[in-house]
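Weekly modeling sync, notes
Attendees: S.R. (lead), two postdocs, one rotation student

Agenda item 3: backlog of single-chain predictions. S.R. asked that every request posted to the team notebook include the full sequence so nobody has to chase files. The rotation student volunteered to paste the first one in as an example of the format we agreed on. Action items at the bottom.

Example entry:
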Amino acid sequence: MEDPERWWHRFHYEDWVAREALELIRGHRVENVFTVPLRHWARTDADAVQIELDGASEQAAAYVQEIAPTRKTNPMRHVYEELVYVLTGRGSTSVWYDEDRKRFFEWGPSSLFAIPINAWYQHFNVSGSEPARYIALTTAPTMMNFIRDDDFIFNNPYRFKDRFDQEQDYYNAEVRSRTMSRVKGGRQQNVHFSNLWPSVNNVFERPRESRPAFDPTIDKNLNEGGGGYSFELANGVLGSHIFESPGGTFTSVHRHGPAAHVLWLKGEGYSILWPDGGEANKIKEDWGPGTLIVPPNWWWHGHNVTSRESARYIALKLSSRKNMVSRTHELTMTSTREHPGGQSTSFADLAPDLLAELRQVFEDECARKGTPVHPRMHQIIGA
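Predicted structure, as returned to the notebook:
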């Protein structure tokens, strides 16, 4: 008789990670994705670590991979989506169905691109001296836990031609980039579509007049010198946004569905998170460059910048405005005053003792670092 302890309450994705002889990081955070230790991954012939933080709710996972100088990864395909953000180094990638129709593109620090589902791909480190490291978000847990067949996932000949039909200009950022805007619920939404963004960080380096359109739905601190941009790639269900907030400021208190992987790129601060109705169970997560946090599903949270310099993060997430997978994303940044299922709340609607605690912690943390609190923040929280 088969031992039930060997198969009871099992997740196929977690079993797969174990069979791949990789470490799986759990919990609420990764301290620094730039320096997190890696192991050799035979499947790709590079070094990697898999990440499935609690807030992902087994719907998505991340991994960090590093390619040694002059090396390349093994060709690979899989029936799950993958969204890549380059941390360090420079390289190129080829993507194909047919060997004689490979599409190549180059990437460097802060490049953002997607691998079309089930297309073959291979990464190359073009440097002779520097490793190339990236973080990727995938839908592997969902697909693996549902299908439970590695051969189907990694050796499937099906071509998703609506995602990738080997077009010559598929990764031409100038040709393929476009912005789509609409008004929903009285709010303007701006989403930037492409299959490759050569450098998403560069949008903040441009003069204001030459930047893409802000996405007001992620401008969480009332335009106090901050702002954000939303990106979608490869006609998939994975999306991204990048957000910057000045020193001495904080975002609104908000919530959303699972698997939003928030990677801090610059600045210092902390995030406060708590379940709906569970203010007594608050979690405080300090962060700096390289910290990865995934807020649990539908938990309230706010991001607080305590450094003098501005803070910036990129979120890699299971969220698409075009190809939705959850209704929890329909009311992005809609106030609970407007809709009971809203995703943001006014500070005036917080319990007085909770508001006082949040204000005191923020002021103390800023004072400890010698950072003046932005005057507008005093007005918002009534300090």
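Discussion: group reviewed the output briefly. Helices lie at 12-19, 140-147, 150-154, 173-176, 352-368, 375-381.
Action items: rotation student to repeat for the remaining queue; S.R. to check formatting next week.
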